[in-house]
Design goal:
seven-stranded mixed beta sheet, disordered N terminus, 7 strands, Rossmann fold, alpha/beta, binds S-adenosylmethionine, globular, 21% strand, 285 residues
Length: 285
Amino acid sequence: MAESENLAPADPGSRASAWDPRQYARFGDHRGRPFRDLVAQVPTADPKVVVDLGCGAGDLTLTLAERWPDARVVGIDSSPEMLARARETDGAGRVEWVEAAAETWGPASLVAPVDVLVTNATLQWVPSHLRLIPTWVAALAPGGSFAMQVPANFDAPSHRLMREVAARHPRAEELRPGLERAQAVALPETYAALLLDLVSPALDAVDVWQTTYEHVLPAPEGERHPVLEWVLGTGLRPVLGVLTDEAEREAFLADYAAELELAYPRRSFGVLFPFTRTFAVAQVG
Ligand SMILES: C[S@@+](CC[C@H](N)C(=O)[O-])C[C@H]1O[C@@H](n2cnc3c(N)ncnc32)[C@H](O)[C@@H]1O
């Protein structure tokens, strides 16, 4: 599915396996870089309230607390598994960890204006996010910032092949909705236009860009393909949620892995995994 303005509708019937913090953390260094690149562009100087929406296992949220040591930092996520890991990591209890879905969470619940709202690698799981962004921006304090990053790699072989293997699977009809739902991102210009409308007339307060990271992943012979390991922690979860029988799941993974070996060949240095991401930062007046 190409990036589209027509975000996939919410599909209450779609299933995804639970988030696995350990699997997700396997490529932590690579996944952390876009977060750091995003937060580096946040212009708000001395925020009092900082929100990380879709905070995951919390290690990146804690970097927000380090950057703004005097701020109240709130990490919000819908996954109890991810939040459990976040609470473990945050032994000092520096961050308020809140279990809530982005679709129903309201900034009013914080009983204070939000100065910085960061949402990294999460909104692709929230098909209604184009409707939600204006409500989050409206809740920002004067001078506050909204900062988001979503993957823009849904036409890359990693995701195209996932869809192709799913499409030829006997349970293709069950697999399709979950895969479509997890790809609900818009074009960069859509985010730019939305945010420019919201901050108008301060049009220089919006910064939207894309970056392609050339990830170099270790790929020892005899070990599972690293791109398969990567997507097992994220994009493949809707498939894992449907194929709960182990033999059926392993057959799917073997088929998909064979395709990945051809698309991302193992070389002396490992595997090159190009990954494009869309970033948007907006500061309100
Ligand atoms: C790919 S992880 C990103 C985690 C973290 N922001 C990072 O950059 O490492 C996506 C996170 O979004 C959370 N998530 C998915 N759908 C969500 C929703 N509707 N509301 C809140 N969190 C959601 C997941 O539980 C998961 O922790």
